[in-house]
Write a structure and sequence with these properties.
alpha/beta, Rossmann fold, 5 helices, seven-stranded mixed sheet
């Protein structure tokens, strides 16, 4: 069983912001005809998929980014024996990487990310898969504060790049899940 958590903020206001790239990836993994379920008193949305006999739970915390770690109360309650850092993939924006770059790393995230800090606090560890997606398109211009910048939308030229990156990430995640299923 695999858990894939896409980080973002709920609501139409944040739908197309840089901070919501994690939601964008899991939404595309789910496909258009899937209906998300709500659980934990509306604190998360989840969806089950199966690929090559491997169960996958896609999760979108609905607590806003800074409280993303609250989702683990649900996971521990519903899947206490099946949850490990090896089967957890957290997809998030990364201001340390330029738009168009991404990294899939175990136990390594950006220098600062409030959503991940919340997760680290609730899990007690950073030992899980980080799917780090670059959102920095400032080209060295740091006049916009980081907390403002992550809530801005991608420029039209960046949207094309992001679409390609999302497809690459989904393909890499599916390849990893397939390799787990065959081992």
């Amino acid at each position: 069983m695999k858990f894939i958590i896409g980080l973002g903020n709920p609501g139409q206001k944040y739908l197309h912001t840089r901070h919501n790239i994690g939601f964008k990836v899991v939404d595309q993994m789910a496909g258009d005809d899937q209906k998300w379920n709500k659980s934990n008193k509306g604190k998360l949305e989840y969806l089950w998929l199966e690929r090559n006999g491997e169960k996958i739970e896609l999760i979108k915390p609905q607590t806003f980014m800074n409280k993303s770690g609250l989702v683990f109360a649900y996971i521990r309650k519903t899947h206490p024996q099946q949850f490990t850092g090896e089967n957890l993939f957290v997809i998030h924006d990364d201001l340390d990487l330029e738009v168009g770059k991404f990294k899939l790393q175990f136990g390594k995230g950006p220098k600062q990310h409030n959503g991940l800090t919340s997760i680290y606090q609730h899990l007690g560890t950073d030992q899980f898969w980080h799917v780090r997606i670059g959102i920095d398109g400032r080209q060295g211009d740091r006049t916009i504060a980081s907390d403002e910048y992550v809530l801005s939308s991608f420029r039209p030229d960046e949207r094309l790049i992001i679409e390609q990156v999302v497809h690459q990430i989904i393909a890499e995640l599916q390849q990893r899940i397939d390799s787990y299923a065959t081992n």
